[in-house]
Amino acid sequence: MGIKLKTVIMGEIEVDEEAIITFPNGLPGFPGAKRWVFAGNDEETIKWLICVDCGHICLPVAPPEVVDPNYSPHIPIENLERLQLKDIRDAVLMVILNLPREKPWRGTANLLAPLVLNPTLRLGEQVVLLDERYSVHTPLLSEEERARIEASLQPEGQQGGEE
Length: 163
Prior knowledge:
mainly beta, BH3618-like, two-stranded antiparallel sheet, 11 strands, 29% strand
């Protein structure tokens, strides 16, 4: 059975009720927003996490390995138990991205607070880690890549001497 949902990002979409993920505690900053759904093309890495309860809340998300191939967070057992997961390998992890509208190449990922999902029960929780290896502002691109993009966007005659 489908639910029609008006979103800011994708206009009106229809979502399958079975695709809804419940975050019993909401998300930090959105405590009343408990029902969410992923949207976007299957072949695209970045998806949208859209609040079913309030379609104007749309968060870009991606698998953490896209940002850090060695990502290995320690998820506390109490979080796994709340999500009825026996092992972290049974979970799906996603991270929330911050993509500045005017300069998306300056985007960052929040590796310090991943979304931990039980795909079978459609339950989720954002877990704030106590881990100094990770940051809420992990760059998506290296400083060199960002500088290259910005240089390529400079009007002719304003670029530096390097080619």
